[in-house]
Design a protein that fits this description.
- The chain has a single domain, classed as Thiol Ester Dehydrase, Chain A (Roll).
- 28% of the residues lie in helices and 36% in strands.
- It has helices at 3-14, 30-40, 45-48, 50-56, 66-71, 73-77, and strands spanning 19-22, 26-27, 90-103, 112-125, 128-139, 147-157.
- Strands 1, 2, 3, 4, 5 and 6 form a six-stranded antiparallel sheet that branches.
- The radius of gyration is 18 Å and the shape is elongated.
Length: 158
C-alpha cells in the first residue's frame, strides 16, 4: 500500500455521508439522443420520432435513453468541486461498476439535468481506493429524479 492511497482512504472514509455537491445544468437535446441512438443501435420511436411521440407516447415528446442519462454521469459530475487533497498522488481512476441503478423519471427532450453526489463508502484495495458515490440526477422542474445510482470507481495511487 502506498502512503498516498492510505491517506486518501482515510479522507474518503471520514467523508462518508457527506455531500460532494451539485453539478451544473446540462440540456439534453434531440441531437444528443439521436447520436446515442445511432451508437447503441436503439432507435425505438420514444427516443427518435417526435411525430410518433406526439400521438403515441405518454410523454408527448421524445425521451432520452436511460443509459444515455447514466452515461452522462462523468460529464455531469465534472462540474462538482473536487477535494484535491483526496486526489493527491493519484495515477488514474477507472469505473468499477454500479449498484442499485434506477431510472425513476424519463428525461424529456429539451430538459435540463444535473447531478448531486454523496460519498457512500470507501474501501482500501492495495494502492487503490474503491469509492462508492450515491448519485442522483435531477430534472429541472420535476419533483422526482431522472435516476439514482451507486457509482463505484477505483482510484489508483502512486
Amino acid at each position: 500500500m502506498s502512503e498516498a492511497s492510505e491517506k486518501a482512504f482515510a479522507l474518503f472514509t471520514a467523508a462518508i455521508g457527506e455531500s460532494e455537491g451539485t453539478g451544473e445544468w446540462f440540456e439534453v437535446t434531440q441531437g444528443d439522443i439521436d447520436v446515442f441512438a445511432d451508437v447503441t443501435h436503439d432507435h425505438q420511436f420514444i427516443h427518435v420520432d417526435p411525430e410518433a411521440c406526439a400521438t403515441m407516447s405518454p410523454w408527448g415528446v421524445p425521451i432520452a435513453h436511460g443509459f444515455l442519462t447514466l452515461s452522462m454521469l462523468t460529464h455531469l459530475s465534472a462540474s462538482i468541486p473536487v477535494n484535491a487533497e483526496r486526489l493527491a498522488g493519484i495515477v488514474m481512476g477507472v469505473n468499477y461498476g454500479f449498484d442499485k441503478v434506477r431510472f425513476v423519471t424519463p428525461v424529456k427532450v429539451g430538459s435540463r439535468i444535473r447531478v448531486s453526489s454523496e460519498i457512500a463508502g470507501a474501501e482500501l484495495k492495495g494502492d487503490a481506493v474503491q469509492v462508492v458515490r450515491s448519485m442522483a440526477v435531477a430534472i429541472d422542474g420535476e419533483e422526482k429524479p431522472a435516476l439514482v445510482a451507486e457509482w463505484i470507481t477505483r482510484l489508483v495511487y502512486a
